[in-house]
Write a structure and sequence with these properties.
mainly alpha, 112 residues, 4 helices
């Protein structure tokens, strides 16, 4: 009796692991798609600000940094497969934005 009930528990664990793996794979695919969209949007923004004269040097610098970050993430994703480090990437992007904001607050005459 004990051996058969142990086998049943093992099957449940396997099924749960399969479901978790599938969900993880789907989430990774979705994250990769979002990453591609973000990169395309950033490239468009950068083109618009540099060619059409929209925005100023600050906007251009911000767009350049975002683009650089997203390209780095895309390269890492190619190397590491679909396991993108979304949380880490978001933290890096947030830090970049905070640094830029701090620089802008330090140099009010540069924005004028």
């Amino acid at each position: 009796g004990a051996a058969s009930s142990g086998g049943g528990a093992g099957t449940g664990v396997k099924e749960r692991r399969k479901r978790q793996k599938r969900r993880k794979r789907e989430a990774a695919k979705e994250a990769l798609g979002e990453q591609r969209e973000a990169l395309e949007a950033a490239e468009l923004r950068a083109l618009r600000t540099s060619h059409e004269g929209e925005g100023d040097e600050i906007d251009q610098e911000f767009n350049r940094r975002v683009l650089e970050h997203l390209r780095t993430r895309a390269e890492e994703a190619k190397k590491n497969g679909p396991h993108s480090q979304t949380d880490r990437g978001n933290a890096i992007l947030k830090t970049l934005c905070q640094k830029l904001k701090a620089q802008l607050e330090e140099e009010p005459d540069a924005a004028a």
